[in-house]
Amino acid sequence: MELKGIHHVSAITANAKQNYDFYTTILGMRLVKKTINQDDPSVYHLFYADEIGNPGTDLTFFEIPHAGTTYQGFGSISGTSLRVPNDEALAFWQTHFTEFDVDHDGIIEQGGRKVIHFRDPEQQRLALVSDETNIGVKGGKPWIRSSVPADKGIIGLGPTTLTVDNPAPTMAILTEILTFKQTGSYPSLIDGQDDILVFSTGEGGTGAEVHIEPRKDLSKERPGRGSVHHVAFRVDNEEELAKWKDRLVGARIPNSGLVDRFYFKSLYFREPNGILFELATDGPGFATDEDSEQLGESLALPPLFEDRRKEIEAKLEPLDTKRPR
């Protein structure tokens, strides 16, 4: 058994309309699924990805309309990165962000790659990372109808950063329970802090890394809008996911057991620093209940919720995601 890389990252927004506008218009990602939070069907769950929502390309958001301010700190998923094809694409994005007044820090080199750190309107901590030197997990394919040129477009999720006060327990979970190996480190951007540690799984590269940032100068994060809920790692299929459940049980790690999310099967658990991890299968995918040409244009409900459609739609704020033909 070997995890294949990052599957998806799920974050929190307080404003689905503003969120949709930013991630589709400014970032040029495709909304591949407009559905509900299956644990709370009164709110949206939005999935942004490449052309068809390939595993490893999905950045998702739960809408929590009254979510408060995030007070950043340790015990958190503190950074989500998005892959672009090369360094030339980053130069485009630097100009693009300036043109659209996106809060960004310009191009820097970090961990041997060029990156741009930036924030969305709710201060979600994001980065674009260049795939110029990537020889690991391949990226996806930008949507041909994106607002961003295809050769500059976002091709998937890059490394996920975890900020913790004590890295040892998280490192143990990654290397002893999951299938990550430490492959490097690089200096923190914060003076006086320890190096950021790089862990990789599967084929490695930008689509298969977790970065651990040790911080002794922070208090525990209080999540809200603009924070990340969980990170999911790729498992090949349901049979392998069942084996992962057995491994967690054998290690006496509390977990959710297998959960059917319809678009994939999942398993959830918290590592010792309190960060929520998910293991998720690569299939069956987002075209299961919608034609690939119309992905994300209508409210999609898993079969378990279909008989409640009228009730669910009545509680949701209308969100127009129809795209002109």
Give the arrangement of secondary structure elements.
Layout lengths: L5 E8 L2 H11 L3 E8 L2 E10 L8 E6 L12 E9 L2 H13 L4 E7 L2 E7 L5 E6 L25 E9 L2 H11 L3 E6 L9 E5 L8 E6 L13 E8 L2 H13 L8 E2 L3 E7 L5 E9 L18 H4 L2 H7 L10
Parallel strand pairs: 1-4, 5-8, 9-12, 13-16
Antiparallel strand pairs: 1-13, 2-3, 3-4, 5-9, 6-7, 7-8, 10-11, 11-12, 14-15, 15-16
Structure write-up:
The structure is a single chain. The protein is an alpha+beta fold and 325 residues long. The chain has one domain (6-315): 2,3-Dihydroxybiphenyl 1,2-Dioxygenase, domain 1 (Roll). It has 6 helices and 16 strands. Strands 2-3-4-1-13-16-15-14 form an 8-stranded mixed β-sheet. Strands 6-7-8-5-9-12-11-10 form an 8-stranded mixed β-sheet, covered by helices on one side. The chain is globular, with a radius of gyration of 19 Å. The model has no long low-confidence stretch (mean pLDDT 97).
Brief description of this entry?
This protein has 325 residues and is of the alpha+beta class. It has six helices and 16 strands. The protein has helices at residues 16-26, 87-99, 167-177, 238-250, 303-306, 309-315; strands spanning 6-13, 30-37, 40-49, 58-63, 76-84, 104-110, 113-119, 125-130, 156-164, 181-186, 196-200, 209-214, 228-235, 259-260, 264-270, 276-284.
